[in-house]
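Hi C.,

You asked whether I'd gotten around to modeling the 143-residue construct. I have! Everything is below, sequence then structure, no commentary in between.
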Amino acid sequence: MTMSPSSATLVKSISATGARVSGHTIEIGSARDVRLTVVVSKDSGTVTGLAVKNGKPADGVLILLVPQGPEPDSSLFRFDQTDSDGSFSLARVLPGKYTVMAIENGWDLEWSDPGVSQKYLAGGRAIQVSSDSKIKVNVDVQQ
C-alpha cells in the first residue's frame, strides 16, 4: 500500500499474527513469518474549545483527549496546550467516543499510563467524534 503524506490517511488499528501489537507499536520476536493487518481511515473530526478555571479561560493547560473503553489505546491519545486565551484545537481525530480533560501542571505526568489518566476522567467531558465533525467544548481545569 502506498500513501502520500498529503492523503490525510490515519492508522485506525493494527493487528498481527506472529508479532505483538500495542496501539501502533509492533514487536516482532523470533517468528519467521509475520502477517500485519492495518486498518486506515480518511475519516476524522476536529475538537476545539476552552479550558476554564474559576469561570475564566486558562492558558498553558494540558488538554488530553483519551479514547473511552476499558483499556484505551494510547496511540489514539491526543494532546495540546491551551493558548493565552484558553483555547485549544485537536485536528484529525479518528471517529469514536473520547473524554477531553484539562489538567493544570499536567506536563510532567505520565499521561499515557492509563492509571494516571484514569483519575482525571471523571472531571473530563465525554464527546463523540464522527467523520468531518467539528466539536466545540469547554472543559473545567483539574489540578
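If it helps when you're writing up: The two ends are 44 Å apart (CA to CA).

Thanks,
B.
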